[in-house]
Write a structure and sequence with these properties.
This protein has 327 residues and is an alpha/beta fold. It has three domains: 175 residues, 3-Layer(aba) Sandwich (Rossmann fold); 74 residues, N-(1-d-carboxylethyl)-l-norvaline Dehydrogenase, domain 2 (Orthogonal Bundle), CATH 1.10.1040; 54 residues. 48% of the residues lie in helices and 10% in strands. The protein has twelve helices and eight strands. It has an eight-stranded mixed β-sheet, with helices on both faces. The protein is globular and about 55 Å long.
Length: 327
């Protein structure tokens, strides 16, 4: 049973990410009260939750008994005012500050003063989201990753005015959803993963822009090096395992050569002019038809489950070996 201070969870926004969050919460025993301006998204959400739960059962992550009657824990409301009873509300709207702040105006008018309002933004600082609010102490960022029901990723970001209680309740939800939350020490735009990801994407684009490599070459090298260790180790553990001094020596000489451009890379500008969205509309850095796009999307889900299981397996092995050495 989930804590009364986090259940039911209100959810605003039933786009791709919002539907995934809803599915994750339902799978882990929460009740969800959802709102979206487009009513048809509620139907899509129900379908995705049902498909996701079947998938989790098929892959032996959940038992059917655990989610029997799940639809009684998912409701759709027609106005934000109907989220009033929720002690915790997650906002998963598009990255438009004006739209988000208009929603917060509505939520502040109807929710209890101590109800937590968590944004799934991937870039806006908490201070910017909560500026001028009546109760800024209840605002924080709760950054999820897609697919929300498989990945263990979660970033919780607080501002100086965010209360410890709000952070504790966000962490409670994250842990209940089998996440490994990172709680940032202070508010910073882009958080951890986006700052790291966009740094390497900028360098990848730079290599292509100057003609040093093709997208295929960059992907191949990245997969077969960073992709080989990143799921288990992370950059600091990897330096521990392979020699900190050597990285320092290389970094000293390489840093001046790395891209520090502030404008959007040329290759990204070209893709955006073409309206490229990748497999979603079969236009991207690689050619896709309907079959190949679908195949990549299906393999990506399989791969995500495999990585999750592999990391858990080796984490258990590390814990067991550490215990044996301690004795």
């Amino acid at each position: 049973m989930q804590s009364g201070k986090t259940n039911p969870v209100g959810l605003v926004g039933l786009g791709l990410m919002g539907r995934g969050i809803a599915a994750c919460l339902i799978a882990h025993g929460f009740s969800v009260v959802s709102y979206n301006r487009s009513h048809e998204k509620a139907h899509l959400a129900r379908e995705q939750i049902d498909d996701t739960l079947d998938e989790l059962i098929r892959r032996k992550v959940l038992t059917r008994a655990k989610v029997r009657g799940w639809w009684r824990r998912f409701s759709y409301v027609h106005t934000p005012a109907e989220l009033a009873p929720c002690p915790f509300v997650i906002e998963s709207l598009r990255e438009d500050l004006k739209v988000k702040r208009e929603l917060y105006d509505q939520l502040e008018a109807i929710t209890a003063p101590d109800a937590v309002i968590a944004s799934n933004t991937s870039s806006f600082p908490v201070a910017q989201l909560s500026e001028g609010r009546k109760h800024p102490e209840r605002f924080l960022v709760m950054h999820w990753a897609e697919p929300a029901w498989i990945t263990r990723f979660m970033e919780i970001v607080r501002a100086p005015h965010t209360s410890d209680e709000a952070v504790r309740r966000a962490e409670e939800i994250a842990l209940a959803c089998d996440k490994e939350p990172s709680i940032l020490n202070f508010d910073i735009r882009g958080f951890i993963t986006n700052r790291l990801m966009y740094a390497f994407i900028r360098e990848a684009c730079y290599l292509v822009d100057i003609g040093a490599a093709t997208p295929e070459m960059v992907d191949r090298s990245f997969r077969n090096d960073v992709g080989w260790w990143a799921a288990l180790a992370g950059p600091f553990r990897w330096m521990d395992l392979t020699g900190i001094h050597s990285y320092g020596a290389v970094m000293e000489g390489l840093l001046p050569e790395l891209s520090n451009r502030k404008e959007l890379p040329k290759i990204m500008q070209e893709m955006m002019k073409k309206g490229a969205k990748g497999t979603a509309n079969r236009t991207g850095f690689y050619p896709y038809d309907e079959k190949s796009a679908k195949a990549w999307e299906e393999v990506w889900v399989d791969f995500t489950y495999d990585i999750r299981n592999l990391v858990k397996k080796h984490e258990k092995s590390l814990q067991a070996r550490s215990k044996r050495r301690a004795h």
